[in-house]
Design a protein that fits this description.
Layout (H helix, E strand, L loop, with lengths): L4 H9 L3 H45 L11 H7 L14 H18 L7 H23 L13 H25 L9 H23 L5 H39 L1
Helix pairs in contact: 2-5, 4-6, 6-7
Length: about 260
């Protein structure tokens, strides 16, 4: 929440929606562009530095003074920086940074949607661009990450759900600020309607979370079907191995 302190100041205390829009534009456009440039240039600079050190080491220890090239894919892959850091080796973790970037962006476009509705368009364009830049980064600039099986995104799911609830509250408060220009803060019909709308939206949100399943029925059916097929294949393979062992033992007994 420390990232949003300055935005909350302009939104709730200062009540300057024009400045709030300028801050959101700066965060969503300029900051995202700079972060994408840094995110893609730093791995390349790290790779270039490691390659320069390796070339210098080879020139120092090899007698051949010709041009040194890394033709092996393993050598090139070894010099690239890792995407997901190992504990105790590096302080940065690309997966954590990507999730954090999405969470911060999601919070800004959701919690201040009524003040700057165009933020969704900027975020969409940024995410479409970042899909391609992240693909380039993972395929070319970084080591191939080791796949790790996971059922969900873990604690990040709770963070996104918390941001959804906070966005309902903050947008309703921003509507109150727009409505109560003179600062009277009386319970008038407009303010009462905003409070009712807040409770209705919260009820809809928790209703969707409660009654809409996280896994569709066709996904569950296909998953069970694949699990059954895998179990059948393992059972057939086990029966074949057992029958093969029996035949082998019978041949040995006949030879004896």
């Amino acid at each position: 929440m420390q990232t949003y302190i300055g935005i909350f100041y302009h939104a709730l205390l200062h009540r300057n929606l024009k400045t709030l829009r300028q801050v959101l534009i700066q965060r969503l456009i300029l900051s995202e562009v700079l972060e994408n440039l840094v995110e893609n240039s730093v791995p390349y600079l790290k790779y270039s530095y490691k390659k320069y050190k390796a070339v210098s080491y080879k020139r120092k220890h090899d007698k051949d003074s010709g041009k040194i090239r890394f033709t092996s894919r393993v050598e090139k892959e070894y010099l690239k920086p890792a995407y997901a850091a190992s504990i105790g080796k590096e302080l940065e973790d690309g997966l954590f940074d990507d999730f954090l970037e999405l969470a911060l962006q999601f919070g800004m476009i959701m919690m201040f949607a009524c003040a700057f509705p165009l933020a969704f368009t900027f975020s969409l364009l940024n995410n479409v661009t970042e899909i391609r830049t992240d693909a380039l980064k993972l395929l070319v600039m970084l080591k191939r990450p080791i796949p790790r099986a996971a059922a969900t995104i873990g604690a990040w799911l709770n963070i996104f759900q918390f941001l959804i609830v906070m966005s309902i509250c903050t947008n309703c408060v921003l509507l109150v600020c727009l409505y109560d220009v003179e600062g009277k803060w009386r319970v008038e019909p407009g303010l009462a309607a905003i409070l009712v709308m807040e409770h209705v939206l919260l009820l809809i949100k928790f209703g969707f979370s409660r009654f809409v399943p996280e896994e569709p029925a066709w996904v569950r059916a296909n998953r069970l079907k694949n699990a059954t097929q895998a179990q059948d294949m393992c059972s057939k393979q086990l029966l074949r191995s057992i029958s093969g062992e029996k035949r082998f033992l019978s041949v040995i007994k006949k030879m004896e």
